[in-house]
């Protein structure tokens, strides 16, 4: 099999998993084995592509030409490879966690859950390896549609309302803003292919480019840039494995990844740095970071606090993109990675507490660290990574984002990032402080979540530590990309 064919199989393997999931729907062991095997195979394929790509191979494939110069096509490049490695590795871990969660909570419609999850991973592979904006847009929309049944999984009125907000904002921003921006780019440049340095070779006025950049920034609603962020807290009505998918594996990461791709490969970082609208977008991203952190501090619901934390952390990535320097872009891609493993661990912990002890409010967690020590040790370490303290991986992404702010001359963003980290300490470390420093409930005994869920938490926590040790290697790989 050729290397280019392997690229296509990264999209087909999750779809083959759907067949196995549906066929074995009545046998939960075989159904879940179909997901785990497919996830392992997918990661193996992506890692194989990574090895060939590191060796200098050009890996690309075109499926179908819609119009001359407009086709569904895929190509491996550095930022997409990082995103694909994250999503493929976390699919396996999330399924492992979901086995314990879904069984422990006796969730209904589990076959539909695993099937939609697999389709979502296929869409993510399409986004990660998209060769052009048209391909990215197609799979971006598929991701929105296939995750809607996951958000509304519970089937009650609250879930349906959350699903309406979720799909309404994501489809609304795509149709009203993202699609017109793509059409305008095609008309102005004659191409939608992702090109190092940007696609606007012919003179285009800074005003027009500024309008386009705003359309992209708000049209890519999955990046949750304020004020188009409400879908993210609304989607927290979904089961915790879905929240993990939304926040760490697929949806929000697809959004901020798309923003980075547009800035680097459609506009070019040199062009973005000179546009008159860029300071506005930089300050808007900074405001999103701080405002979402302040809202997170006021949330007593465990998952809601983590949801607003995600809105804030996504602001870090969009900020890095709009700072438009080599260090800032590297910091954004690093933060996609560091946040993925840190935030998925936090959600795993929240779900474990809910399934094992039916507690969903932070005010109910007093002494729970003595009842669920593994869970809250994992939470503490992942929180420290999100905050950006060594020896956890999150320190590297924040470091390079700060360097990017210095390179771009936005010294005030150093203050924003510093204040945000302090706010992270307040709203994240309150949880393990309650869990470990307050008395345990009377008569409470040690009771963790199901074994598969605990194993998943331990894996992602270990990765938070490993990413500190290998952060330099990841940075060197990202720096090797042609960004200008």
TrEMBL record:
Domain of life according to the entry: Bacteria
Signal peptide: none
Ranges for domain NADH:quinone oxidoreductase/Mrp antiporter transmembrane: 130-423
Record localization: Cell membrane; Membrane
InterPro entries the UniProt entry points to: CPA3_Na-H_Antiporter_D, ND/Mrp_TM
Record's keyword terms, sorted: Cell membrane, Membrane, Transmembrane, Transmembrane helix
Membrane topology: Multi-pass membrane protein
Bilayer-crossing regions: 6-24, 36-53, 80-101, 113-130, 136-153, 165-188, 208-232, 244-269, 275-294, 306-330, 336-356, 368-389, 409-429, 454-472
One GO term describing the cellular component: plasma membrane
UniProt similarity note: Belongs to the CPA3 antiporters (TC 2.A.63) subunit D family.
Protein name as annotated: Monovalent cation/H+ antiporter subunit D family protein
């Amino acid at each position: 099999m050729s290397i280019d064919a392997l690229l296509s199989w990264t999209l087909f393997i999750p779809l083959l998993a759907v067949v196995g999931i549906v066929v074995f729907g009545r046998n939960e062991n075989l159904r879940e084995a179909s997901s785990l095997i497919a996830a392992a195979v997918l990661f193996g394929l992506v890692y194989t592509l990574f090895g060939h790509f590191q060796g200098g191979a050009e890996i690309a494939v075109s499926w179908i030409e819609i119009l001359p110069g407009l086709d569904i096509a895929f190509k491996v490049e550095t930022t997409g490879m990082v995103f694909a490695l994250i999503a493929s590795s976390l699919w396996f871990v999330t399924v492992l966690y979901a086995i314990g969660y879904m069984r422990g909570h006796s969730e209904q419609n589990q076959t539909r859950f695993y099937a939609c999850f697999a389709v979502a991973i296929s869409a993510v592979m399409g986004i990660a390896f998209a060769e052009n904006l048209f391909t990215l847009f197609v799979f971006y929309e598929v991701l929105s549609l296939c995750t809607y049944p996951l958000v509304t999984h519970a089937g009650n009125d609250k879930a349906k309302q959350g699903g309406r907000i979720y799909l309404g904002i994501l489809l609304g921003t795509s149709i009203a803003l993202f699609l017109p921006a793509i059409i305008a780019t095609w008309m102005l440049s004659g191409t939608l292919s992702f090109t190092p340095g940007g696609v606007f070779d012919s003179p285009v006025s800074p005003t027009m480019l500024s309008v386009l950049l705003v359309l992209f920034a708000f049209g890519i609603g999955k990046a949750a840039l304020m004020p188009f962020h409400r879908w993210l807290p609304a989607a927290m009505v979904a089961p915790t494995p879905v929240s993990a998918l939304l926040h760490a594996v697929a949806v929000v990461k697809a959004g901020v990844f798309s923003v980075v791709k547009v800035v680097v490969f459609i506009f070019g970082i040199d062009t973005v740095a000179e546009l008159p609208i860029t300071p506005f977008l930089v300050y808007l991203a900074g405001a999103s970071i701080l405002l979402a952190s302040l809202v997170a501090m006021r949330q007593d619901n465990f998952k809601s606090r983590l949801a607003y934390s995600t809105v804030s952390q996504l602001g870090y990535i969009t900020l890095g993109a709009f700072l438009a320097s080599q260090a800032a872009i590297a910091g954004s891609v690093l933060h996609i990675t560091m946040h993925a493993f840190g935030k998925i661990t936090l959600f795993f912990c929240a779900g474990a507490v809910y399934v094992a002890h039916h507690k969903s409010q932070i005010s109910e967690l007093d002494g729970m660290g003595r009842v669920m020590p593994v869970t809250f040790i994992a939470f503490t370490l992942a929180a420290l990574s999100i905050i950006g303290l060594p020896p956890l991986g999150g320190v590297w992404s924040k470091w390079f984002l700060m360097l990017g702010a210095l390179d771009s001359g936005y010294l005030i963003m150093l203050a924003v990032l510093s204040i945000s980290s302090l706010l992270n300490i307040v709203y994240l470390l309150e949880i393990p402080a309650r869990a470990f420093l307050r008395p345990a409930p009377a008569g409470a005994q040690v009771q963790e979540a199901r074994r598969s869920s605990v194993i998943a938490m331990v894996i992602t926590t270990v990765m938070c530590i490993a990413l500190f040790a290998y952060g330099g290697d990841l940075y060197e790989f990202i720096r090797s990309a042609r960004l200008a």
